[in-house]
Amino acid sequence: MLIGIDDTDSNEGMCTTYLAALLADELKAFGTVSDFPYLVRLNPSIPYKTRGNAALGIEISLFDESLESKKELISFATNKIEEYADLSCEKTNPGAVFIFDEAYVSLRRPLNDFFKKAVTDVVEIEEAAAFLKSAESDFSNSVFHISMKNGRGLIGALAVCGAVLNPDWDATYEYLAYRLPKNWGSNGGPKRFVETESLILADKTTAPETWDTIDYDKKSKPFPVCVPGGNDPVLFGIRGDSSDAVLKAAKCVVSEEIERSRVFKTNQGTDAHLILAESFSDMLPLHSYLSKGTVSSKSETIEGGHDIFQIQDDYGNFLKCAAFEPTGDFRHIIRELIPGDEIRVCGSFKNETLNLEKIKILKLAEEFESVNPNCPICGKKTESAGVGQGFRCKKCKTKTESKAEVLIPRKISVGWYEVSPSARRHLSKPLIRYSKDELIS
């Protein structure tokens, strides 16, 4: 069987991953729990999300497959959700789905479609409710759900079930360590202690198999990206390509006492949210895209340090692109783009603007400047002979009628560029994960 859970956290505290880690430990009384719970990030542009828009899934082989045992498990999980969910938050609307027996196989394909849509598209509560109504009718005593408040969490709960049932996708891993409950920020606990030097060691020991542990782009000192700043239970998280890599990195970390930890299987760092858009006119709000175009205007830095520029596709459509201040040194690359540069862009589309996650410069335009010509004899720079009188060399007495056009060296080159690690979205694929073929394609 499997359990899908979503939307128990809030902006003020709690974390659905903690509830999943807790359940993965305590549900061992009911059966054998899979090694890695699933942590699936959904569409990052959805406005209803609390923080990271993650849904959690747990797979179990039951000791007792009777209906009574199943209902006991559902009751146990429901009580835990009620105990730990931050129901005081307006955005927190928990949902959980339980799938047993024959439904486990029969719903594989439709749930996979639901999973893919929840990562790339907009899914409404009514769609999740209709899916469950049909499934519970077709598979009586094999599909159950619980919801609280408006039940928006049912969307993620169904989506993560689709991920668990269809594991044929680019999977990464995250090790998450949790604080002692007495130290949670919402309980007035102390500031997190995670030694930055130990995180640097963890990064140097395991990179490129792990990533986004430290942001070295910060001007003052290395910034620990993997340590959150809010009131939630997470102490730190290490992301990587394998469970071995994240566990190896975690062993390097010096921190305050850890209550529990868990390695999750996840779709983070995969670009699963990106949709290929041939034309900018195909772009819809609250979706994320991969597209290409030609720069049509130089970047303008607006109030707040954000950089805005425009590109044009092959169909004559224009698209405004933005590199926001938190993206760090990435903005310096954007400021070097000039009209005529051909680029590939990745980002989320909102307010008629593509918020950039990374770009690839495909071709650089040539830029020239007019300068006083060199003397054809001695090679030295000539001087103006007066208004409308051309240029002359004092030494050789040579004369040239007009200025020379000289190619300006570009400060950027063809290739991929990405935002700083501290500004990266959970789903955005870091360049460190790209294969050689992906980097040159």
From TrEMBL:
One of its GO terms (cellular component) is cytoplasm. GO terms for molecular function: ATP binding; ligase activity, forming carbon-nitrogen bonds. Residues 372-412 form the TiaS C-terminal zinc ribbon domain. Residues 3-136 form the TiaS-like TCKD domain. Its EC number is 6.3.4.22. Residues 151-273 form the TiaS FLD domain. InterPro entries: TiaS-like_TCKD, TiaS_FLD, tRNA_Ile2__agm2C_synt, Zn_ribbon_TiaS. The keyword Ligase applies. Keywords: ATP-binding, Cytoplasm, Ligase, Nucleotide-binding, tRNA processing. Its main location: cytoplasm. The keyword Ribonucleoprotein does not apply. Transmembrane segments: none annotated. It is found in: Cytoplasm. Belongs to the TiaS family. ATP-dependent agmatine transferase that catalyzes the formation of 2-agmatinylcytidine (agm2C) at the wobble position (C34) of tRNA(Ile2), converting the codon specificity from AUG to AUA. This is tRNA(Ile2) 2-agmatinylcytidine synthetase TiaS. The gene is tiaS.
